[in-house]
Amino acid sequence: MYHESVLVSQSIEGLDLKEDGIYVDATFGGGGHSKSILQQLGDKGHLYAFDQDADAKRNAGAWEHFTFIASNFRYLKRWMRYYGVDRLDGVLADLGVSSHQFDVPERGFSYRFNELLDMRMNQQQGKTAGDFINELSEGEIRQILYDYSDVPNARKLAREIASARQSGEIRTTADLVSVLDHCIVGSRMKYLSQVFQAFRIAVNDEMGALRDFIRDAFDLLAPGGRMVVLSYHSMEDRLVKHFFKSGNFEGRQIKDEYGNIYRPMRLITKKPIVPSEEEVKRNVRARSAKLRIAEKKKD
Ligand SMILES: C[S@@+](CC[C@H](N)C(=O)[O-])C[C@H]1O[C@@H](n2cnc3c(N)ncnc32)[C@H](O)[C@@H]1O
């Protein structure tokens, strides 16, 4: 199976779909969320779905009221301009990677297989994880580990990586794992997952893309339009939470001249929705999911 979709009914409910609405699924993947949206759209409705991974396109059919866009969702505005869309009724983003990306060894996302360290979601462009690990300075590697993983010994690990590559490039997942094995603190699986995830986030500039997407999506949303975001990393969730609450990614409170606090969105979820135990039992990759929903205010 390409990917088992997470929190589907809750996300679709969150979009508060209108039959003739125009929607964006920013992360098509296996198409699970998209198919549920399409079931509720009428003749005048339309769904634009993005995925930057060429493999995802194969999951899209020749469906009516549907356009697949093989691109990074950070270019949402440009694509909507291209298609002549200036208002959206809702956007959904189910962030991170699909199970397919993890499960295909050659993609280099997983420490479970020995393959080249690639980790690019879009294999047509950009530097691979191998390039990052061999070319960045020790300080830059340390920063990636600090920012995107919770490993308690980021400084030591960055030093080990920098020293290991002096005696030969770190090109494969096994090369990297053999360095990590000297540094593991706590559960090996958790440690390896966190470090691999940190490099994946950096390689794909996932936080930068998310910021661009949220800003564009907000601008394009019609008043009353919904933004639905499923995140799997605390930093992603924080960006979403802050933006929904205050219209910026730092969570800064902005007041007008009368002291009124600027709140551009109405929170539909005050606290994130998380999967039930039953869903996590069925689909372990759902375990870290957090779903937040907000509506663009009407005035
Ligand atoms: C968790 S999966 C989505 C699964 C999908 N909701 C489903 O039901 O099958 C995330 C997908 O988003 C894509 N993706 C992640 N970041 C992206 C970005 N910045 N631009 C476009 N696609 C992205 C990945 O390639 C992956 O296929």
Could you describe the 3D structure shown?
The chain is an alpha/beta fold and 299 residues long. It has 2 domains: 183 residues, Vaccinia Virus protein VP39 (Rossmann fold, 3-Layer(aba) Sandwich), CATH 3.40.50; 81 residues, Putative methyltransferase TM0872, insert domain (DNA polymerase, domain 1, Orthogonal Bundle). 38% of the residues lie in helices and 14% in strands. The chain has a 7-stranded mixed β-sheet, with helices on both faces. Helix 1 packs across helix 2 and helix 10 runs parallel beside helix 11. The radius of gyration is 20 Å and the shape is globular.
Describe the SSE topology:
Blueprint: H1 8-15, E1 22-25, H2 32-39, E2 46-50, E3 66-69, H3 76-82, E4 88-94, H4 99-103, H5 129-135, H6 138-148, H7 154-164, H8 173-180, H9 188-203, H10 206-220, E5 221-231, H11 234-246, E6 265-267, H12 277-282, E7 290-296
Helix pairs in contact: 1-2, 6-7, 6-9, 10-11
S-adenosylmethionine is lined by residues 3, 5, 27, 29-33, 50-53, 56, 72-74, 94, 96-98, 121, 209.
